[in-house]
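quick one, 337 residues, struct below
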Amino acid sequence: HTDWPDEPRAPSPHTGGAAEGAAPLTLRQHAGEQQLQALTQKRLVRVFPSGDRIYSNNLDPTLGWRAGAQMQALNLQTNDLPTQLHHALFELNGGCGYVAKPAEMLSEPPAWPPPRVLLHVVTLTPLTLFELPARGEQRPYVQGPAFASHAHEPQLSWLPHQPRADTAPAHLFHSPTLAFELHAIGGFSCVSFELPPSDGTKRALLQPTSTHGHTIHYAGSVHCTAAEPRSAILRIAVVDEGGGGREIAYDTAVLDVLREGYRTFQLRSMQGTRIESCYLLVHVAFSTQVNAWVGEHELVSTLHAQQARLQKQAKELAGLRQKLLLDNTRCYTRYVV
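---
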């Protein structure tokens, strides 16, 4: 089912449903992202997965977010990459469930993503990974109001007092690799080991330098570059290279919420539950980089659009000022000397 009008017919809000593959993906190819963003300024749009997804896997939510869709139906019982990105984005704004769209997406006309001359660079230097669980070890950190749910249904997090029946004897991971990823809703983004970045690579792997039991040490830095850090989601995963590249832990955060200095990421199991005492210590540094991926034509077009918008607003203000003067001449005014 798709209810997505070609042109706005009324200023009042409407609600539309868009199936995956119909809109925004199909319309995105023909009408362009900015037209979709203009439609979502006047309508609430919900994107739901295709009926072919019989295994409860999820669609890529960044496509709908970039088109301006306010709601996307996800199978949250499946903690795949789309669900992880969903949780990361909606941790913003205090986790209340609402996140404001970028201002450029709400302008008249929409101009998302805008061309940026400077890129934001967040340099992550991982130092030590503490208390990574061994193979077969389950150490969920379950606290707060959700504890009763996990106790009733231990498959949510594999509580220690109810271990998995097929769990093998615990063995330490030999060489856990760190994977750094960037998932952007809009604008240029990349992950690199050198500055300036040479391409738009979205994923970089960092090998450990030494391992001492449950503690793993790393050396080297990863540069996370994004034109829109408020709309770029960082994902750090621990990869078992000896186990066929299987991911064993991860954490996510919007790039803009990071602060300079030392900080820790408390990692999650692949079920999405925090792992008790498992932290990645990193150093965070900020810098900027000239955007070599934006063209002169894009910058000039954006400048002209902004000038036209300012001229339109100036005319509207002049009209309102004139109307106010006329209204004042049509009434008596109390004047006391």
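The longest strand covers residues 274-290.
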